[in-house]
Amino acid sequence: MALRPFQKGASGTVVLPGSKSITNRCLLLSALAEGESLLSRGLISEDADLMQKALADFGVQIEKNGERWIVQGTAGKFPPEKRNIYLGNAGTAVRFLTAMAGLAPGETRIHGKERMHQRPIFDLLSALGQIGVEVESENNNGCPPVIILGKGKIPGGKCTISGKTSSQFLSALFHIAPLTEKGIRIHITPPLVSRPYLNMTIALLEKFGVSVQEISEYEFFVPAQKIHPVTMEIEADASSAAHVFSIAIAAKGEIEIPNFPQNSIQGDAKFLNILKVFGAEIKTSEKGTVVRMEGEVLPLGEINMEDMPDVALATATLSALAKGRTKITGLSTLRKKECDRIEVIQKNLQRMGAEVKSGEDFLEIFGNPDLLHGAEIETHDDHRIAMSFAALGGRIPGVIIEDPKCVEKTFPQFWEVFESVRA
Predict the structure, then answer these.
(1) Is the pLDDT of residue 66 over 80?
(2) Domain assignment of residue 189, given as a range
(3) d(Cα 201, Cα 197) in Å, to the nearest integer?
């Protein structure tokens, strides 16, 4: 897809889809609850569809009507059978369902795309083994495909897990802990990356009536208890908002999002603070959130984005428009995402003429918009790569996005939104 720059800047109003992170967590918890849950304004996307289909394979009844789902909870009781679950590139679903499968009697095989089979999951498999789940990596490499031999119950107890690789491993354990026989006492080996996502999981568990005990910063206990059904509206996706607001920063102009989540449980909602440093004017009211950009993009200096990894890519691409140095640290988890996001961001920015350095957990961009030019952007089937470079395509002529359909993973309407905010 060849993108046309916004000759007159950006202007428009965008209603966001529901949060991917909250949608997936609520679908899973509703499936494990004891009773019927009603979820509204959930995300309609490839990832959410894969999660729903997988839950159906476990025997969960889900009635879908647009952005509204009625989920019949199972209380963690699943029919005994052999399952072969395909989850594409949906990393969240792979982690969450690998843990849930321990409750389901029978053999469950979980697999996905080639890239998914390169993403380590060993820490989660080890923790599940410690609480009595029989699980293994099919190729003995600590990555999917994984095979779970469920017994219909999980003993629970104590487990130790590294917090360095992915907070989703922890969330997967928290979700199933109430339905284990003894609950789970989880000790986390520091550091704990992406802590806001674990906070989100705990906040949602509490909405489902689950009590979580935080013993210390790195130790939690989730007792055995019921998961109660809910009726709730899912917050709009703050990560998607970052890509929309980035268009206003790059192309200059004003974009309003009326349903941008206020007092959000999503860590990425703090992306607005980064936009202020870039030089944007932010207005928040009951009518929504407006981002306005008039001047040149300012460099950030040094910034740690360990708590906001999903919007670090948008931050990196916008930094190429800022005359000066921006160093983004805390990015170690980006190496094991849909692609090696640090490497791919660096190569694509360099292809556009930017000076970029990288390390194991950082990107350093020496921005200068005068040196940028068009290029073909290799997305590696990664939705966030495509959406992050879209903002540059609104400013720099000649940007071509390879495989633009990869945005369907989380934001199927993104390209329509991109054109709708052209002034």
Answers:
(1) no
(2) 20-221
(3) 6
Buried b (16+ CB within 10 A) or exposed e, 262-297: eebbbbbbebbebbebbebeeeeeeebbbbbbeeeb
Specify the pTM: 0.93
Residues 83 and 217 in one domain: yes
If pLDDT is split at 50, 70 and 90, which confidence band does 208 have? very high
335 shares a domain with 282: yes
CB-CB contact of 157 with 187 (8 Å): no
3-class DSSP state of 342: helix
Upstream peptide bond of 191 is cis (omega within 30 degrees of 0): yes
Instruction: Tell me if 89 sits within 8 A of 49, measured CB to CB.
Output: no
Q: Which of 223, 221, 215, 230 is nearest to 179 (CA)?
A: 223
Closest to 122 measured CA to CA, from 96, 144, 142: 142
pLDDT category of residue 286 using cuts at 50, 70 and 90: confident
Q: How far is CA 83 from the centre of its chain?
A: 26
Task: Give catalytic residues, as residue numbers.
Answer: 310
Instruction: Report the helix count and the strand count for the chain, using DSSP H and E.
Output: 12, 22
Domain boundary among 194, 221, 248: 221
CATH assignment of the domain containing 348: 3.65.10.10
Q: Six-digit token pair at 325?
A: 């140095």
What is the distance between the alpha carbons of residues 41 and 17, in angstroms, rounded to a whole number?
Answer: 7
Looking at the structure, tell me whether residues 239 and 140 fall in a common domain. Answer: no
Distance (Å, rounded) from C-alpha 406 to C-alpha 356?
25
Q: Please say whether the dihedral angle defined by the alpha carbons of residues 196, 201, 206 and 208, taken in this order, is positive or negative.
A: positive
145: cis peptide before it, omega within 30°?
yes
Rounded Cα gap, residues 59 and 77, in angstroms: 9
Mark which of 160, 192, 221 sits at the end of a domain.
Answer: 221
Instruction: Kindly state the DSSP code that residue 301 receives in the 8-state scheme.
Output: E
Q: What's the token pair of residue 197?
A: 């996502």
Measured distance CA(289)–CA(285) in Å, rounded: 6
Tell me the C-alpha distance between 16 and 237, whole Å.
Answer: 6
